Amino acid sequence: MSQGQAGVVAAKPRRSLTRAVIRFAGDSGDGMQVTGEQFTTETAWAGNDLSTLPNFPAEIRAPAGTLFGVSSFQIQFGSQRVYTPGDQLDALVAMNPAALKVHLGDLKPGGILIVNTAAFDTRNLEKAGYATNPLEEPTLGDRYRLHQVDISGLTKKALEDLPLDAKEKERCKNFFALGLVSWIYTRPLEPTLGSIQKRFAKNMTYVEANTRVLKAGHAFAETAEMFGEHYGVEAAEMPSGTYRSMTGNRALAWGLLAAAERTSLPIVFGAYPITPASDILHELALHKRFRVRTFQAEDEIAAVTSAIGAAFGGAVGVTASSGPGVALKGEAIGLAVTSELPLVVFDIQRGGPSTGLPTKTEQADLMQALYGRNSEAPVVVLAPATPGDCFFIAYEAVRIAIKYMVPVIVLSDGYLANGAEPWLIPDVASLPDMEVRFRTDPVGFKAYLRDPATLARPWVRPGTPGLEHRIGGIEKQDVTGNISYDPENHDHMVRTRAEKVRRVAQEIPPTTINGAATGDVLVVGWGGTYGAITAAVADAQADGRAVSSVHVRHLSPLPPDLGHVLRQFRRVLVPEINSGQLVRVLRAEYLVDAVGFNRVRGLPLASQEIYDTIIQLLEEKR
Amino acid sequence: MSTATGTPGAPYTKKDFESDQDVRWCPGCGDYAILSVVQKLMPDLGIARENIVFVSGIGCSSRFPYYMNTYGFHTIHGRAPAIATGLKLARPELKVFVVTGDGDGLSIGGNHLLHVLRRNVDVTILLFNNRIYGLTKGQYSPTSELGKVTKSTPAGSADRPVSPCAFAVTAGASLVARTVDRNVAHMEAILRRASGHRGAAFVEILQNCNVYNDKAWNVLYDRESKTLHELRLEHGKPLTFGPADDRRGLTLDGLRPRVVKVGEVPESALWRHDEGDAAAAFLLSQMWAPECPVPIGTLLARQGEATYEDLIIDQEQRAVSDRGPGDIAKLLLSGDTWKIG
Fold first, then answer.
1. CATH number of A519-621
2. DSSP per residue over B233-270, as a string?
């Protein structure tokens, strides 16, 4: 810690923590997402493992000061593996009364509470529904370590002599809060200073202003009497290597880029803007050098059909959306099923039905992915477990789609999409082989002549002489691909398309069991609940309970050994952010008496509630 | 499936473009004439057969790709323009045709048709307009006249019809034309021209459904009516029509077309057809008998405009030439990274 003022300030005691959960909360215009992201970068630099949860309103600029306009960013970091953004808060920064009202309930008794006193005026208190100023009541100070800081006032003071108007100065206040919290948790400021330089490169006054305010917040915390101590969180023991911070949406995009490079094929990415999937389009649009052709289509249907047209042309066709968009794409996905073309569909699940909760997370599109099309239209369904896993899942989706000539749906979710984790950068050479074999030989060519191992039909690029052929959505005779209304042929084709998807099971590695291979309770999860489940199971295991977990990344087809794994446990628990979808599939598929744990709040599951459910299940049996 | 290609570069004949599938349109359908003309003009395009793709949606017209011995994709209702756009993004060098109908293109697929035209994707769109839903057995279509009595509108339809050519002109197509299934020579000339156009070319083909809407285009089928009302558009020529002994011409009174007797006004006063004038093309697209003649031919043709895929591929090539091809290993290590261990 710098002793810049020549030893005027005595070093304050520093205590060591193994983990901490912090939430920044304010108006949606207060810059809480940037603050959280910067704090995340600082924390990654410090070598901690971490997990984040951005949470913002669907409105772009919700009316200031209102409860529904509150935006927040939560991070858990630690010196051990961190699996979730955390359940209860160790520290809460509330930039206005509305943020305090919305988030105070999550703060642990005795937790650190920092409030921006300047925002606690009559108008804001009224908008937040406070009859009296809660800061003037003793209860807050009794229950929490309350720090009342005039963040707006101190920010303005730090910027007194800069040629900025009052609004511009006020806008810097989030960095005061960041500086303050960075000192409390001993975070390095360098990454934020660097990013200020980059972000405002075109305006040196902004660079100066933000730098000053960040340092002012930091110095204030160090100097002010109210912060009696600060905390260090030692670096976590993580596998050695080079790391970067990774969000799920970026990882999906980069996984596609890796596939484009490996296959030497262009990618046509058709998408229509929709929360929370749009960032994939934005990210890919930056990387034209990888021969990614992004197409902002006129609607969801054009987004998927353009991808199908591209696949017909011999490119990798990909589309991304959220649940409502995937519903619109259903008929076209059926076309890809029957024309047996490779297609990758990303579904970044959000709260529903209909518009639902656009910016909140949910896992309720599993049934839609598995069955949400007319007639028998089986597809491959994959789900990443963590933000970084999205990279490998996207790559895997392209690999399977091409190898089996089949649509692959990837079920990510709002939590994975926007959440970040420190990600061990993989060696690109270690990614699985991805072979593209276009048929070029006219001798013996038939459009639906299948590869005996995969049942894939040949992929033919238009432009190949002698292989001119027609395909379409009408039922086809197997082998020749000619239109056929023959009843037996249709039955055969329905079974063949299903069998082709089943054969993808040969790509799935043996199921990894977190814990012993037999025991009392097996917790089965999929998608973004990985962290919460793993943390809960780790706690139960630490108690000496015979509890294990598996996380299913291949949802269709299911791993071939999954049934066997399930039967080695007395009880099977399936926590999901839906009303019980995977649990229904497992019960139907394996005739096991699996039970669900289901909460559909638009939020990740809390590991504590999963832990409690595990214990309940164990007690029931006694 | 025929795979006989002959010698590469050898001249094709019409037969090379006939597939081995039985054609399943109703006997007497106007689609037969269109198919025959398209097959006939293919050899003249100077494009290798393997580089030609026919994409279609759903409806009677959309069966078309099955009968062409080229690459073909019979897709889903209304979406052929979007499929074709994706195909062109993947493979800009291919010659792509979209075959659609009045229901497929202007009802369920109206949105896609709008966007493929305004983007100026390099596709040739053939819209077979028979003013009826044929494959679903006779409901009125978005081009059916007001008051049309069909199975679904026993008391007459209450919807006003859309003009396909007006739609295409205002959407921003770079070529808009109209022809008639019963005028084989005209159809051949128009389709040849449209096929050779670079950019979004739109051709409305007035086509007869002899089962559900016979002689919907009688204004141009009936010999006498045709002589009276057919207006052949020729670039740079005055707009004249009618029998040889009673020629009529068009003048413009502001934005209002007026029918005049040829010879009663000086030739310089007649409206001269300018294919580059989209406003004039819109006026032409609004005209219909008996008040006005019925124009057939090329209403609008703008040359040399960049296609959608030109612009996209150009951006890609500039990105590669400025900064080199993408390198995923480098990208993964870009920005903030840190080492552990």
1. 3.40.50.920
2. --TTSB-EES-GGG-EEEEEETTEEEEEEBTTB-GGGS
